[in-house]
Amino acid sequence: xxxxxxxxxxxxxxxxxxxxxxxxxxxxxxxxxxxxxxxxxxxxxxxxxxxxxxxxxxxxxxxxxxxxxxxxxxxxxxxxxxxxxxxxxxxxxxxxxxxxxxxxxxxxxxxxxxxxxxxxxxxxxxxxxxxxxxxxxxxxxxxxxxxxxxxxxxxxxxxxxxxxxxxxxxxxxxxxxxxxxxxxxxxxxxxxxxxxxxxxxxxxxxxxxxxxxxxxxxxxx
Length: 221
Description:
Largest sheet: none
Number of strands: 0
Order of helices and strands: HHHHHHHHH
Radius of gyration: 18 Å
């Protein structure tokens, strides 16, 4: 198996597992706060087919791979949560939102620990673990960008006082358009000789900080 094919398969396995676990974690956290909507809709599951989104799980990651992006990320279909059923509501909203990025950070740490047992072997399992660290940390940072409907937007809405959280909530209809602009704008600018990547500038510093932290607590530094 060529290195390119090995790396591609490893990235896809790590990405699918990361986004599936991310969404299942939202559903599990909602259950803890009294909302069983995800369970009733069959979304409290580790079956990736229940979570895959055509744009976020297939098209965008494929585009990023073809474009040679240094970051590979995506998203799944959001797990349905009835925030009005959460008790307490505001704390529930914050912790349900953070459950996804939180589990991604945890998975990155577990992957880093498991690398100790692979002895640096260049195998599919080793490549999956290496990609799992990177992809889970990118997903955690990306999803904590404070733009609804991302998890960071939900956290901000749950924390801010009402006049301000109303403004953040009002951005939700435009959230995906803003994110698509941040993702694809660098490609358009590159074609006219302008080298700027706003999303990369947002993601890179916290990603590097989290990477150093994970490698340190897993014994790689």
